[in-house]
What we know:
Blueprint: E1 6-8, E2 12-14, H1 19-24, E3 34-38, E4 41-45, E5 54-58, H2 64-77, E6 81-85, H3 90-98, E7 103-108, E8 112-117, H4 126-149, H5 156-178, H6 186-209, H7 217-232, H8 236-249, H9 256-279
Parallel strand pairs: 5-6
Antiparallel strand pairs: 1-2, 3-4, 6-8, 7-8
Helix pairs in contact: 2-5, 4-5, 4-6, 4-7, 5-6, 6-9, 7-8, 7-9
Amino acid sequence: MKRKLVQHGASTLITSLPSKWCSKYDLKRGDEIDIEERGPILEISTEKALAVRTQRLDIRNLSKSLIWRYILSLYRYGVDEIEIVHEDKFDLIQEITNSLIGFGIIKQGKNTITIKDLSGVSESEFQTVYRRCFFLLLDIAKQTYELYTSKQSLDQIPNMDKNLNKYVDYCLRVLNKKGFSDPRQTSLYYHTIIQIEFIGDTYSLIAKTKPKKLEFFKEINEFLRKFYELCFEYNDKKAQEIFDIRKELEPKVKNPQLLEVIYSIINLVDVQYAISLSNNKI
């Protein structure tokens, strides 16, 4: 979109902001915005979150799985308050609400329950929670390997994966509601977080299916750890090492779940490269 500049005083030029953007973030006269100069580009941003979003959801004819997906989708999308129309689904709604960081039940009627974000989302906490997602994923990988090789029960792994998903969902909510501090990185982080969830689900599937043979399990976990290190300190040497390890491991690994871990990591290397370019203000 283009805007004309208007002379204001002897040395100041002014222009208008798009009304849809101002309405979206509930900006009013007197509010502060941030302006950052990037060569010929001026980036305008606000620390204000999107205006409060509400949604009415009728779940009376929906299955348990679909109810989970609908409420989770609204949460990730950034909806702040959900009025749920139901029939005898209080326990399920409470279970789902307990899995949503910051949400709680604020109102109950005969056939309605209203859940709401009680704590808000914090952009400043994003990096902390994002790193926690990696820690939880690495712990899932470690515990799955140790329990599998010692022939102990793997029943705790799906629950560990559910805990990971809780933080993944919160990160996605922050990105949808506030975006990343550098808008160019929002989609890059979103894609990375979705893949973290997928890798966690992959380990959970290993725990549920209990394959008879898992060769190179320890090496795959080390491969995952090297990727984590790359994400938080990117350099060409680490990236090349990941591709060299992939070249060595891929022909040998036969288990489809472990192969999925390899593919997911490789598909994220270029994303981490793009994030590193943005961090260097390119």
